[in-house]
UniProtKB/TrEMBL annotation:
Xref: PANTHER family: ENDONUCLEASE V
List of residues binding Mg(2+): 46, 113
Keyword set includes Transport: no
BP terms from Gene Ontology: DNA repair
Keyword line: Cytoplasm, DNA damage, DNA repair, Endonuclease, Hydrolase, Magnesium, Metal-binding, Nuclease
Catalytic EC class: hydrolase
Organism expressing this protein natively: Hymenobacter ginkgonis
GO terms for cellular component: cytoplasm
Membrane-crossing residue ranges in chain numbering: none
Gene from which this protein is expressed: nfi
CC cofactor: Mg(2+)
Top-level taxon of the source organism: Bacteria
Name of this protein: Endonuclease V
């Protein structure tokens, strides 16, 4: 997810309390479990902000394991919530859910450009969306949000655990998706486990740093922006 981080005053404490309570409620409904069956369709999801006031969210649906593109949709709208650090999923989720509603092919699992449980309160955008949609989700992020890790090996497929520095809890895996590129951060969202998230990410690599579902979602976000400018 490409976040817009505007400068400005500190967020309203009442809003932060409300978002924290909502996040806790979502967390209580989040589950970690393997997929019931091998996916036949995998979706990629990405959002970006063309302007500080607007958001575009994209879903692509691919056949698995061939990764043939079968559908692409987007939703474009106004951002309804101010920027609050640590609660960015609330800023994106309403528009992402509107994009999901446009799909005619229902995916078996969603790969989200962002974090799952690799979040200070274990509720990144992938986990948030998974609970809201009651869909299997996992996150593949380009940057670390929280956690400690040792650099994985420099070759494609190298892995290292991402752990909570205080508890040692495993909250994700750090994956080298291409030789000598910066690693990705893979974590389960909802109705998915770490092993599945990592396995599917590896299975979706096609020579680029990003796996195909999120790479194509990002690509089509740029194309769809031309339609809304």
């Amino acid at each position: 997810m490409a976040y817009f981080r505007p400068p400005g005053p500190a967020p309203d404490p009442a809003l932060v309390r409300s978002l924290s309570q909502q996040q806790l409620a979502l967390l209580q409904n989040r589950r970690t479990e393997p997929l019931a069956a091998e996916p036949r369709l995998i979706a990629g999801c990405d959002s970006s902000f063309p302007t500080p006031e607007t958001i575009i969210s994209v879903f692509v649906v691919l056949k698995f394991p061939s990764l043939e593109l079968v559908e692409k949709v987007y939703s474009y709208g106004l951002v309804t919530m101010p920027y609050v650090p640590g609660y960015l999923s609330f800023r994106e989720a309403p528009n992402v859910i509107q994009a999901f509603a446009k799909l005619t092919h229902r995916p078996d699992v969603i790969m989200v450009d962002g974090h799952g449980i690799a979040h200070p309160r274990r509720m990144g955008i992938a986990a948030h969306l998974g609970v809201m949609l009651d869909m299997p989700t996992f996150g593949v992020a380009k940057n670390k949000l929280t956690g400690t890790f040792a650099e994985p090996g420099l070759t494609k497929g190298a892995l290292a655990p991402l752990t909570d520095p205080k508890t040692g809890e495993l909250i994700g895996e750090v994956l080298r998706s291409k030789d000598k590129v910066l690693p990705l951060f893979v974590s389960p969202g909802h109705r998915c486990d770490q092993a599945t998230a990592t396995r599917l990410t590896l299975a979706c690599l096609r020579g680029y740093k990003l796996p195909e579902p999120t790479r194509l979602a990002d690509h089509w976000a740029e194309e769809f922006k031309k339609e809304v400018r």
